[in-house]
Amino acid sequence: MAAPTSGLSFESVHREFRPRVLRYLAGLVGADEAADLTQVTMLKVSQHLSSFRGDSSLATWIYRIATHTALDRMRQREPARVPVDFHLEEEVDNLPAALQAPSAESCAARREMNLCIREFVHALPPHQRLVIVLSEVEGLADSEIAAVAGLSLGAVKIRLHRARAHLREKLRAGCTLHRDDRNEVACDRRPSTVR
Questions:
Q1: Long-range CB contacts (< 8 A, 24+ apart) of 22-26?
Q2: Which of 85, 112, 141 finishes a domain?
Q3: 149 and 180 assigned to the same domain
Q4: Residues 81-119: tens digit of each pLDDT
Q5: pTM above 0.90?
Q6: Do 99 and 77 belong to one domain?
Q7: Looking at the 3D structure of the chain, how many domains does it have?
Q8: H or E segment at 128?
Q9: pLDDT tens-place string over residues 124-169
Q10: Largest CA distance in the chain
């Protein structure tokens, strides 16, 4: 059980978690809506921080609020393809130095690969997208995902397994993956494969 947050200021919580919430929500709903939903999430955190009991970690509690905010938005809109609009330059710039591409060509190839994979992630059903983003992008443990999503640990493991299998299937059908001349994974996109 986590300790209560009576000594935490909203400013410190906002500074630490806002970028993480924004990245997480962009993975769920796209960058266009992520900024608005991050504002809504952080407003809810501000309003309820004093009542946080510490039954879970602060991060789990905040991700749960963000998840419910995103799911509420997804329920409100008509079924449509989620837009893919990420700030890929920021992602590449935030990679560890050992993973950053030394040339503009390598950097462009990595961005293209990242965009390709993200499009396929966005094409997953929302319940699969949720667990994939929490696991693979946010790096949460299965038990943390269970707390955020309100699922049992077994259900999380099953959803992750199915989501990964579904994503693998989509990638195999939509891309020809190969190693380029620098031995980095590259993708040749097949037309009209993301649905």
A1: 23/137, 23/138, 24/63, 24/66, 24/133, 24/134, 24/137, 24/138, 25/66, 25/69, 25/70, 26/86, 26/87
A2: 85
A3: yes
A4: 333 333 334 433 444 444 444 455 556 656 666 677 778
A5: no
A6: no
A7: 2
A8: helix 126-132
A9: 898 899 999 888 888 889 999 998 888 999 999 999 999 999 988 8
A10: 56
Asked if residue 75 and residue 145 are part of one domain, the reply reads no
Of 34, 64, 85, the last residue of a domain is 85
142 contacts 153 by C-beta, under 8 angstroms: yes
> Distance between CA atoms of 73 and 53, rounded to whole angstroms?
26
Instruction: Copy the structure tokens of residue 184.
Output: 């980095």
Distance between CA atoms of residues 115 and 103, nearest Å: 18
Query: Measured between alpha carbons, how far is 23 from 27 in angstroms, rounded to an integer?
Result: 6
Same domain, yes or no, for 75 and 116? no
SS3 176: strand
Name, in order, each residue with C-beta under 8 angstroms of 18's C-beta and a sequence gap of 6 or more: 38, 42
SS3 101: coil
Q: Residue 165 burial by CB count (10 A; 0-12/13-18/19+): exposed, middle or buried?
A: exposed
Domain of 147, in residue numbers: 88-195
Q: What is the pLDDT of residues 1-53, one digit of tens each?
A: 444 445 678 999 999 999 999 999 998 888 888 999 999 999 999 999 988 88
Do 104 and 165 fall within a single domain?
A: yes
